[in-house]
Specification:
Order of helices and strands: HHEEEHHE
Oligomer: single chain
InterPro entries: HARBI1-like, HARBI1_dom
Number of domains: 1
Protein name: DDE Tnp4 domain-containing protein
Number of strands: 4
Distance between the termini: 41 Å
Strand order of the largest sheet: 3-2-1-4
Number of helices: 4
Radius of gyration: 18 Å
Subcellular location: Nucleus
Shape: globular
Helix content: 25-40%
Strand content: 15-25%
Keywords: Hydrolase, Metal-binding, Nuclease, Nucleus
Domain DDE Tnp4: 57-135
Length: 136
Amino acid sequence: MPRSTVHRIVHRVTEEVVAIRHKVIHRPKTPEDLEAVSRGFAGLARHRAFLKAAGAIDGCHVRIKPPSGPDGQCYRNRKLFPSIVLQAVCDHQGRFIDTYVGWPGSVHDSRVLGHSPLYRSSLYPPPGHFILADGG
């Protein structure tokens, strides 16, 4: 397949994914939806301590071709391959609640979180709830 065809297809698919992102990436819409997420986490953990869990967060590295020039080095992550960081919050069934992407791979997960709209807006999780995370 010619490179130009692949580029056109990837571009078209990307536009379609972006167009529907709000249908598949969203926070629980009602208190009952949030309660179902919390009960789901408590059920998975088999412990009542998780009855206020509103999601689970982590970051992953998406491999990229780094920009040329001196800035390209900041995209090298701790495993030494060039990447951008994708931060995602999922519910107990693995459905996306929130995503944030674009920081260079050398940036620590905690810094990405601190600059994310999710963190800065303080709208989620609601008071009295928490998001599960690792030490990253």
